[in-house]
Amino acid sequence: MNAPLTLRRLVLAALLAAASSSAWAADPVHDAAAATLPEYLDLLRLPNVTRASAADIQRNAAWVKAAFMRHGFTAQLLDDGDTPMVFAQLGDRHARKTVLFYAHMDGQPVTPSEWDQASPFTPVLKAKDASGAWQALPLDKLQGGAIDPEWRVFARSAADDKAPIMMLMAAADAFKAAGKAPAINIKVLIDSHEEGGKPTLPDVVQRNEKLLKADAVVMLDGPMHASNRPTLVFGHRGVTGFKLTVYGARGDMHSGHYGNYIPNPAFGLARLLTAFKDADGRVLIPGFYDGVHFDAQTLAAFAAVPDDEAALLRRAGVARHDRVGDNYQQSLNYPSLNVTAMAAADIEHPRTVIPFEASASFDIRTVPATPGARELALVRQFVEAQGYHLSDGAPTDAERAKYPLLASIAGGEGAAPLQTPLDAPIGVWATKALEGAYGEAPVRIPMMGGTVPTHGLVVGLKSPILLMPLVNADDNQHAANENLRLGNYFMGVKSLHALMAQPL
Amino acid sequence: MNAPLTLRRLVLAALLAAASSSAWAADPVHDAAAATLPEYLDLLRLPNVTRASAADIQRNAAWVKAAFMRHGFTAQLLDDGDTPMVFAQLGDRHARKTVLFYAHMDGQPVTPSEWDQASPFTPVLKAKDASGAWQALPLDKLQGGAIDPEWRVFARSAADDKAPIMMLMAAADAFKAAGKAPAINIKVLIDSHEEGGKPTLPDVVQRNEKLLKADAVVMLDGPMHASNRPTLVFGHRGVTGFKLTVYGARGDMHSGHYGNYIPNPAFGLARLLTAFKDADGRVLIPGFYDGVHFDAQTLAAFAAVPDDEAALLRRAGVARHDRVGDNYQQSLNYPSLNVTAMAAADIEHPRTVIPFEASASFDIRTVPATPGARELALVRQFVEAQGYHLSDGAPTDAERAKYPLLASIAGGEGAAPLQTPLDAPIGVWATKALEGAYGEAPVRIPMMGGTVPTHGLVVGLKSPILLMPLVNADDNQHAANENLRLGNYFMGVKSLHALMAQPL
Predict the structure, then answer these.
(1) Which of A153, A238, B45, B317 lies at a CB distance of 3.0 to 4.6 Å from A400, suitable for a disulfide?
(2) Average per-residue pLDDT in chain A?
(3) Where are the beta strands (DSSP E) in A15-105?
(4) CATH number for the B15-236+418-501 domain, one of 3.40.630.10, 3.90.1150.10, 3.40.50.880, 3.90.180.10?
(5) Topology, domain B238-292+334-415
(6) Terminal CA-to-CA distance of chain A, rounded, Å?
(7) Model confidence pLDDT, tens digit, residues B358-405
(8) Domain residue spans in chain B?
């Protein structure tokens, strides 16, 4: 599907590649980007696993604060217990609008033995050889000389999310080198708690509301669209988790002496799951999709995203996809009901028993029209409509004697969705900036399927929010051999420079 | 349900209790039983966990062999690697039929900390106090004086299965004390491998076919009917295990980015389970019950078993039972399809993913009309009829690209069922013997739901087999605080004596 788009993308990729190795070399924005690469490597050398070491995060915060100051920003640490965040600022003219850029300096835990290099915190520059294998290059290849955009830097947080921090400084440098000033006031918040531990962002935002106040927020996190074209994301789904347990006998029962007689809760749970969804993955719970409607502009936006769905299915290794929406993007704009895990007894050591209970954990990905609390209430009602009595935890003896079908539902915690209208001023501004820089419209994703902890920013600042991911989609983020494609580093600086040059 | 039967049982219990404390005291069979109690305690003092110590089993075997010889049997060890079995014999007259009695001397593993006594291998005599709590009594209460049938001996294998070994010797003693000989030739096989490790019975039987040859086999194992009335069991179900795995994507997929798009195999597995059975637990797989028919005699036998189904449900803690048969006994005479465990991802640590696979392990309890291989073939056909392609283990890339629904089925090992006709000579003989001893028909169970490893005996000896369980149903076998009710010890000796006195 989308054959014309694929062709167009190939042509674009060829143009970009040509541009990067010749025209970009004479581009002051490119030069500014290249000049920051040694600092970028230094930043990657600082271990940054919040859960592992607060002292590591303190070292990152001190380094980042000093770096912003070296690059012309004012900067300060924001108190957050023993893992401070960093605030930086450039320009404060009343006549200009203010944009707050968000990124984070902490990273996911590492298992060094899984990496194809000595340490996740010793960055390695690599290029693909003729056979497609990654081969290390000397790091000094990054100091002067032509840089192949296909080279990659491998290290924890190379992409997620230290690259955007340095890209911000490089973009500011480009204005300075050209003797110009950005068209917006720039604020920067660098989070220390995005990847682990209790999220502290809402508290930090609340305590620093005035300092962080902005007309718009741009979050620099996550990977770009798989086409690697400049990408704007206008929202994300929320998430609500819960656990459904179906109860059988008081304890495991001998499957010989009681098989065909004592009901097996695994079959009961299976019946509920089967009632929840049809064979195409559409939720059958009444009201679950209520309020979800798409106008013509939104439907067109779904269709305009250059997804290669055939390639997606091939990568995943499945011959067909669920049929909730007409295409991948539309599917992500409906709430989902997903089983994240399921269990009865111990499948690694099955004994010949009728298990006493069977459980499934779920996540509901929500959209603004379908709040998690409403969806969970609909699930509860539906389970009751199937004849189940919902107990508060494990059933009492009286409940066991009275109700043939017993279950419980626990949980309901989650995070809220975010949706910025496609025609909101922040979207018009960013789209215009990127169109100006690249000569064509960016990929505009109405809503990404995953969840980003924007709630603290939304509630605390009440500013419109947009996500602008800058790193390659195949960056292995959260896993071993995380990497940044250097072409994306240059493109990211170019995109940020374009936004900074565009009056809001 | 069964109110009249319950009343009749209460009356019978009262009569038995009265008999045990007065009439039995003057009964030579009762006296012979009482005289063996000190030896019974000695036998319980020998640790007997096959998997834990072969030397322990050797000590048990030597003790059991010597004990049979003390009680007038000839006896020998049967080679079985380092865990010998014991063979004993009493009488060898050509004019008499020969019955082989089977019991086992090995026991289930113990967790001493879970026991309410110093050691599972230091037997403790206990009586219930007014509050219903068990209180220890001096062991010498068992040496002379009246013995309350409600007292119990607590120790590993007190019930399962050392008591029947001593009961056999006591029953033989009663003949000797009366100057009589049994009406049958008696052979005894004491297994060393029933509770754990690789079953070696088939090999031992094959190597000793001539020695063990008998006209009938009576297995003394398992608990009596819950009514505690003398019980004969005419068969048991077989068992066949398998594992069904439904495949989703190649690996776990992010539930945000792919929820509503990449199919979740947990829902696929649930749909299959729901198709397997209706809400009343009846299997919907075509042909699964084919060949199962009950004649009027068998239906009457089901109804005659004095089950208290209301009490069974109360103990289990469920308000309703599956509706495969018209009653509990009939349900156990149909093959069952039971989920023994089920899993997708890790429910203890659920992550927000679409799990890459979902599995359920099953056991099919089989009856002679429904062999395990046939049932498993029907399951495979049924899964395919639901649109699934069954791969041989995990699917290949080509299978992933071709088939929307992918699953695999592995396993199929199991044990055969056994069914001796209710009117077979062995059943008539044992029924007549027990009727004579107790003045009413025993509980006759056409087929128990669980599986007993009789196959080695059946194939090796080609003799009709009957099970005569002798111990109380609430004996905590296989668990902590295993115990034998002393009334059952006396009743067991009486039942064995009755069989031995009855010509086959």
Answers:
(1) B317
(2) 93
(3) 74-78, 85-90, 98-104
(4) 3.40.630.10
(5) Alpha-Beta Plaits (3.30.70)
(6) 37
(7) 999 999 999 999 999 999 999 999 999 999 999 999 999 999 999 999
(8) 15-236+418-501, 238-292+334-415
Which two tokens mark A129? Answer: 């050889």
Contact (CB<8Å) A352/B343: no
Q: Report the pLDDT value the prediction gives residue B455, as an integer from 0 to 100.
A: 84
Q: Is the pLDDT of residue B20 over 60?
A: no
Q: Give the one of B261, B269, B336 whose C-beta lies nearest to A260's C-beta.
A: B336
Say yes or no: domain A27-235+418-501 is CATH 3.40.630.10.
Answer: yes
Q: Could you say which DSSP state residue B291 is in?
A: T
pLDDT of residue A1: 35
* CB-CB neighbors (< 8 A) of B404 in chain A: 318-320
Pairwise CA distance, residues B253 & B352, whole Å: 9
Q: Residue A126: which of A482, A496, A497, A499 has the closest Cα? A: A482
Between chains, do A341 and B347 touch, taking CB under 8 Å as contact? yes
Tokens of residue B175, six digits: 């003949």
Which of B385, B367, B413, B372 lies closest to B284 in space, CA to CA? B385
How far is it, in rounded angstroms, from Cα B335 to Cα A449?
Answer: 46
Which runs of E-coded beta strand occur in A23-137? 74-78, 85-90, 98-104, 124-128, 134-137
- Whether A131 has a pLDDT exceeding 50, the answer reads yes
Judge contact between A460 and A212, C-beta under 8 A.
Answer: yes
Is B256 in contact with A353 (Cβ distance < 8 A)?
A: no
Cβ contact, residue pair A350, B341, below 8 Å: yes
User: For residue A12, is pLDDT > 60?
Assistant: no
CB A396: neighbour CB atoms within 10 A? Answer: 13
Distances (CA, A) of B315 to A242, A250, B484: 30, 8, 21
Q: Say whether residue B400 is in contact with chain A using an 8 A CB cutoff.
A: yes
The pLDDT of residue A42 is above 90: yes
How does DSSP assign B457-478, residue by residue?
HHHHH---EEE---B-TTS-TT
Q: Any CB–CB contact under 8 A between B323 and chain A?
A: no
Is the pLDDT at A22 greater than 80? The verdict is no
To the nearest whole angstrom, how far is the Cα of B251 from the nearest Cα of chain A? 7
Distance from the A310 Cα atom to the nearest Cα atom in chain B, whole angstroms: 10
Substitution target in A330, A340, A413 with the highest count of B β-carbons within 10 Å is A340
> Pairing state of beta strands A418-419 and B465-467?
unpaired
Q: Which two tokens stand for residue A83?
A: 């893992």
Q: Using alpha carbons only, give the angle A218, A485, A449 rounded to the nearest 5 degrees.
A: 45
| Residue B173 to residue A167: CA distance in whole angstroms | 96
Mapped onto helix, strand or coil, the DSSP state of residue A382 is helix
- A-facing residues of B in 207-246 (CB < 8 A) are 236-237, 239, 241, 243
ipTM: 0.89
Q: What is the mean pLDDT of residues B238-244?
A: 97
- Count contacts between A and B (CB, < 8 Å): 266
pLDDT band at B324, cuts 50/70/90?
very high
Residue B26 confidence (pLDDT): 65
- Cβ neighbours, 10 Å, residue B344: 32
Of B186, B126, B143, B137, nearest to B40 by C-alpha is B143
- The amino acid occupying position B284 is L
Subunit contact A347:B359, Cβ cutoff 8 A = yes
> How buried is B36 (Cβ within 10 angstroms: 0-12 exposed, 13-18 middle, 19+ buried)?
buried
Q: Which of B245, B267, B284, B366 to mutate to test the interface with A (most CBs of A within 10 A)?
A: B267
Asked whether the beta carbons of residue B271 and residue A263 sit closer than 8 angstroms, the reply is no
Nearest to A366 by CA among A237, A453, A234: A237
